[in-house]
Amino acid sequence: MRPTLYGSKHAVSAGHYLASAAAFSILEAGGNAIDAGCCAGIALAVLHPDEVNFAGVAPIMIRTGAGKVVTIAGLGYWPKAFPQDLFMREYNGTQPYGVLRTVVPAAPDAWITALRDFGTMSFGDVAAAAIRFAKEGFGVGEFLANEFAKHEEDYRRWPSNAKLFQPEGRAVRLNERFVQTDLAATMQYMVDAERAAASKGRDAGLAAARDAFYTGDIAARIAEHQKEEGGYLTFEDLANYHARYEEPVVTRWRDFQVITCGPWCQGPLLAQALLMVERAGLGDLKHNEPAYIHLITEILKGAFADREYHYGDPLFVDVGLERLLSAAHIEKRVGSIDRNAAMPDMPPNLYHNSEPPTPATVPSERDPDTSYLCVVDRWGNAFSATPSDASWRAPVVPGLGIVPSGRGTQSRPDPNHPSGVAPGKRPRLTPNPAILLRDDGSVMPFGAPGGDSQVQAMLQVVLNAFHFGMDIQEAIDAPRVISMSFPNSFAPYNHYPGQLGIEGRFPARTHDALIGLGHKLEEFPAYSRRLASVEAVLYEPSTGFFRSGADPRQPAYAIAI
Asked: Of 84, 154, 214, 382, whose CB neighbour count within 10 A is largest?
């Protein structure tokens, strides 16, 4: 649908075209990939208010031109006073909408941490575009208009949400201007604090911007509002929060290093799936033929089963990631695959007896929220980030224009689950930025929104590009499938044994063959956001070119020069 974009100076790809344009302006002004990435990430919180919140999550991965790789776990923890048994005791194992899902907002601290340690610009520099988009407004496109309409009743749950998202008493519509005055003022308050401290140096200014959110009037208002709504997030939770640097997970696949975040998110799932693909062998399988789709689907069932049984905050849970990525474990998982018949559900836990998850009886739902952005600059720095958090699960804080992170929706209500809720514990996050490093020096930051579809789409794009030889945009555009044969990461954690989502560009014979193998098909539109939205920038030193692609499944765009 689109061409791969080539450049020889720098490139960016983000989930909204205005975010890409803002980041590109930073690069052209002399900023590096970290400056530009933070600019795009903050802008996405304005441009994708249905999917990203300024007070949400922002997992970040950085690879410097000198070769250093870091991950910033831009993910908050459950309030320290949160009763661990609350959902089981009072809500019958469910999570109600509202402030009870709130964890500490992580994104502002994560962006500022990245800027402080690896960027060159001020918070005011990189937030300027977002503030302008929020204050002056921007034109609502088809994707956002549809999301506003879909959640029209959800926004009416709270007066503050209705005031912001339905200023005319209805959902904001296509081609109308959407303005977020309070959010603009919140970000400007942080910029003003930074400027007041600027005489003490750049780091002092960044610290002042951070403190304006976490220890100043913004934090006090958030805590006050939480108390008014019956929540548990306190001023102390905010003041004591700092985004953690976490060790990246580095896995060898062919002539690549696959770099993901740790099992506090679902990132290592990508590495495991690639290892399983290699162990199973693709042989002479043709792209998207039934035998190939079947094999990839069965591999994903095994990898997602391990996520379900083992992943959680590694500060609280012994995940056993080294064992899950070991040759012996990969062999066991691949050995359970029947090339001629689909597993009726995800496979069992290989190490402990576990109760099988309960199948869902309701139709499958779209995985909500999240966007993505990536940048590579002229100095070889690469930035990959997956900001997130929806605005319709909990109330907007009046006067601030933000919804403190509702990412608690990805913790299980049962504290005994590896990703179960606990005070001070982080939910198991779906957003998972990644970077590929090739032995020839090539670097590719990439990622996607889409909940449980993220890794599945990322896997298919990697294989499209580096096994089947497609160019980046072609690899992104190609039709996809997604397995749903495991519990969904979002409350109410619905589980659809054997179900396979498939985009509408596959021929009838492929459908018939997959059904014959035992898959239950759910057909989606030809280009469906349900199957994620992958963005990528590939820099190849052998050619000197940046190749950039963006997914047409949402208003994502790439720019390269």
From this structure: 382
